[in-house]
Amino acid sequence: MNLVSIFWNLVIESAPWLLIGYLLAGIIKQVIPNSWVEKQLAKPGFVSVLKGALIGAPMPLCSCGVIPTALAVRKAGASKGATASFLVATPETGVDSISFSYAVLGPIFAIARPISALLSAVIAGVLVNSLDKESFEEETVAEASSCCHSKLAVGVENIPLSQKLIDAAKYGYGRMISDTAKWLVIGLVAATIITAVVPQSFFLRWGDGLLAMIIMVLIGLPMYICATASTPVAAGLLFAGVSPGAALVFMLTGPATNIATMGVIKEQLGSRSLIAYLIGVIATAVICGLILNEFYATFGWSLQLSMMEHGESHPLWRQLAAVLLAALVARVWIQPLLGPKVATDESTEKPELTA
Fold this sequence. Notes:
Layout: H1 3-31, H2 34-41, H3 46-56, H4 66-75, H5 80-92, H6 95-105, H7 107-131, H8 138-153, H9 161-197, H10 210-220, H11 227-239, H12 244-256, H13 259-268, H14 271-299, H15 316-334
């Protein structure tokens, strides 16, 4: 099967789940205002770290989009640990990447990925708070939170439900696709090349234990890739012989440890927080990877790489979903060439604090 056929097969398999995920991301954007996020995290201690992970996990933000939001959360009074926890959980997983993981890698990865991301976020946040302690002035925190809340709440609460649904679709199929289109295409192309060119035994030389996971850490550490785009790459790695645990390590470290994020953490939280952040993310990813490998071996689970199945014709509705997704992604590059950019999402997006 040639590269074009493999690529289109990947698009057809992933399109329905991506479209569902993008819509859910838009709905979450409408349901969870940034003001509420900032208010919840503007308290010191373990509770705010846990909240940072739980709130960040479903948030529709990729590796680039999470940075200004996390900075706003920090300026609103969130602890370093809560900010770090939010920075880990948000890009490592999300409703779009979970649904995509289910379609591409099967239900085991769809469950293991968000659980591992939450653990990674909490541990990173706790380590940051422990290794880089800071003093909190409760009045300052409360004042900052109240100030931010008042600025963000104006004009948001009285939007009709029908308009919120429209705005959700515009955000999901507009801003979210715009933010992830480039990396999604890169991920699909990388998966296509790995599937077509790399022999299945290529990665077996590294084994399926700790060494393979360290290799995945080194690959994912500097890489700028969002959770959704890392999914087809992980599928290609699995197809080429990487163990499930090693693929999970790549999906956790890639989105959370890119160079841009590490630079922001060093500048805003300090070097000690950056070291604690990296230790938390990498150590948790490796431990979760080893546990996942053990589960696969103990229970005899088999890989479910839906995107690697060829030979059968796809239902018409899947092909139509693929055409729709391709059109939405193509619009990201075509629209600027046709004239001034139409504000499809900026006007509907809730006001946000900027760093």
